[in-house]
């Protein structure tokens, strides 16, 4: 992950605040605002408030109860004032009851809910949080394992928007000493599997700073001999293509993609 210390940075949904603390300690950005989804009492009960207190002691703004999908929770933040907004390993929280599951997932699946969350993050960050005179960057760090790998992050989130997907880069947790990747619902660490940071901006790639552009792997352009929803191919023969299209993985991804397209059309 490329970080320019001159940037004004906003972190979204940073669980126990260990990522924000590592970012502040080891990169010392010009400005950092850290946010968490939970209220302060939940943070204290779930993770403790060590990192919260460290950030405050270093004069870092920390906002609790911050929901990136609900601007009414942003009352304490200065809009259009950030160069980079970061969302680390986002995942819709688990449901506490069957009734809540039925309410939130009525007619759609968890896959679509997660895509909704990430799309809203990109749209709200681009339209309301990023300074239009700055580099205007959004980072999402995710994993190449289920369920993350089933969201088609590179291609599905920005349909019918003015946001560009610029590429991806490796996320090395060793560059953020003290960062603990947490389970979204519990006080447990999750396995430090390989992370990938995906990058978007309202600005096209050719307006990126060279230092960032040099670290990005651009999106692969898939031809007609590839599967766009699975990011597979090119296929070497009609039989190869047919075999893929009949596979369980493809049928599952095709179903996810259709659910997502239906949801976009409905909203």
Automatic annotation (TrEMBL):
For biological process, the GO terms are: rRNA base methylation
Q: Which residues form the 25S rRNA (uridine-N(3))-methyltransferase BMT5-like domain?
A: 10-182
One GO cellular component this record assigns the protein to is:
cytoplasm
Example GO molecular function: rRNA (uridine-N3-)-methyltransferase activity
InterPro entries linked: BMT5-like (IPR019446)
Q: Which Pfam families match?
A: BMT5-like (PF10354)
Which protein is depicted? DUF2431 domain-containing protein
Q: What organism does the UniProt record list as the source?
A: Moritella marina ATCC 15381
């Amino acid at each position: 992950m490329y970080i320019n210390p001159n940037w004004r940075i906003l972190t979204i949904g940073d669980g126990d605040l260990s990522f924000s603390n590592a970012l502040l300690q080891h990169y010392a950005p010009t400005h950092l605002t850290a946010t968490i989804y939970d209220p302060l009492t939940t943070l204290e009960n779930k993770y403790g408030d060590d990192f919260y207190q460290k950030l405050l002691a270093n004069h870092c703004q920390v906002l609790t109860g911050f929901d990136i999908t609900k601007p009414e929770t942003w009352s304490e933040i200065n809009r259009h004032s950030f160069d980079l907004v970061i969302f680390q390993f986002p995942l819709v929280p688990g449901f506490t009851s069957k009734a809540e599951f039925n309410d939130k997932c009525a007619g759609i699946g968890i896959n679509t809910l997660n895509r909704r969350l990430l799309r809203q993050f990109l749209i709200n960050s681009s339209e309301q949080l990023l300074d239009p005179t700055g580099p205007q960057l959004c980072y999402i760090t995710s994993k190449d394992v289920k369920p993350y790998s089933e969201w088609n992050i590179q291609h599905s989130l920005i349909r019918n928007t003015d946001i560009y997907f610029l590429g991806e880069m490796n996320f090395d947790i060793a560059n953020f000493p003290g960062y603990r990747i947490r389970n979204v619902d519990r006080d447990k660490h999750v396995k430090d599997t390989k992370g990938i940071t995906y990058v978007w901006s309202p600005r096209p790639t050719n307006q990126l700073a060279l230092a960032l552009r040099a670290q990005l792997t651009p999106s692969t352009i898939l031809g007609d001999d590839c599967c766009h929803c699975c990011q597979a191919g090119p296929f070497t023969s009609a039989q190869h293509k047919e075999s893929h299209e009949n596979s369980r993985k493809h049928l599952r991804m095709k179903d996810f993609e259709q659910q997502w397209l239906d949801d976009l059309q409905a909203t």
